[in-house]
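To fix ideas at the outset, we first show an illustrative case, written as a sequence plus integers encoding its fold:
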Amino acid sequence: MTGWEKYSPKTRRNFVLGVGIALIILLATILSGLLIMRRLVREQIVQRDGDALYATTLMEQLDFSEMDEDPRPAEQMSFDAAVRSSRLRGVMGIRFFNPEGGFSDTFPATVMPHPLGADALSAIRQLEPHSRFVASMSMDDIFIYLPQFSKGRISRIPVVLVTVPLHARETRELNGAAQFIIEGHSMADEFMRLDRRLCQIGLITFAISGSLLVAMLWPAFSRSQKLTRELAQRSERLQRANDELALAARVSAVGAISSHLMHGLRNPLASLSEFIAGQHADDHDIDRDDLEDALSASRRMQTLVEHTVQVLSDAKGDPAYELTVPELGEDVLSRVKGAAEKRDVELVFSADGRCALSGRVANLLGLILVNLLENSIEASGRNGTVALKVSRLDDWLRFRVEDTGSGIPGVVQERLFLPGKSSREGGSGIGLAISKQIADYLDARLVLEDSTEAGSVFLLELPMTVCMETDL
């Protein structure tokens, strides 16, 4: 998992959370605005009926005042004007109040008496109508008694209570107040239509605003993603550079020690080989097989030391030469040929594709391949076969080492590239661990591709970026 992939889920969750919070705030704002609008529109609708009844009552009083011979006092004319206004559609009854707000009479007589509210009293004192919508009122609060109540056909209805001041048209002298009780089904239906319309407006507004909000936030999130990805990549490259510097420092220290050791071992091993060879020629009492084994071991160690010194020398500077893949294969096979002949193991090599490697890379690959081939030779037993096959797949140069041994036990496979586990008798498993470290250093991949009772297959994949095309 790359650095960006580790941060990406958290970034996406934060974006979804941020957008969700923004949409919730937007929804709350729209709902608040719609509720305020709903209340204001409802007040206007209710007040509309109050203004209409007030104007009608004043008109009726004007008609009475134009009768010159009308002997009725102003209070009676206001009462009669209100009664005539009750003929309007939906008016169920009227309550009358004196200028101080006290109850005085009803029309018809079956209307239930009720005190005048403080809001209504304050309005009529200013000669203004007051309207109030009641969504559900019991019929017992409106009428004293009606026969149909006993049958249970009507219980509660919506009503509009409209209180209008009673006064002469040209004066501000309050004669009293009349509270009209109006059946409110039509207004309840109007309120329902208003609520549906406001709900539609709210949904459309939320959908459009939410879409615009997401559309505006998405580029910012994409930019943030890009910056986070770049930061993660740079952090990863910086961490890798630090690791490579640390590894280079350790390799340099180990290389210096190894170079000192290798140079120190070179001369003693050469002298040992000459001594054993001299004993082999002069002393006939020593077992020849033992001398052969000792001579072979000393020369193999001498060859290994010489090759290690060569690798260390190449690592100190620029590569002085190049090796093609076939040349590398032949060099590797020559180093394990003696071990293969000793165990009667057949070596097979095949390579396709044109590729040349620097001497440093070739030598490091050689160390890995020699270790893999020696392990395969040990695992194959007598008359076995070990194959080294080189191919190219996409951007990888692939080295496959196949043997005809009995496979690697499952317990060993779990810690195959860690020191301390080996399928060979007396083995420590350090060779594969070192090979894996060298592969990682080359940005290569070393894996156990397959292991059955018919044999094992190790796969070493090297990036083609280190490979130079050649016509050879």
Summary: Residues 166 and 176 are 5 Å apart (CA to CA). The two ends are 39 Å apart (CA to CA). The chain has a mean pLDDT of 78. Residues 321-466 form a domain with the Heat Shock Protein 90 fold (CATH 3.30.565.10).
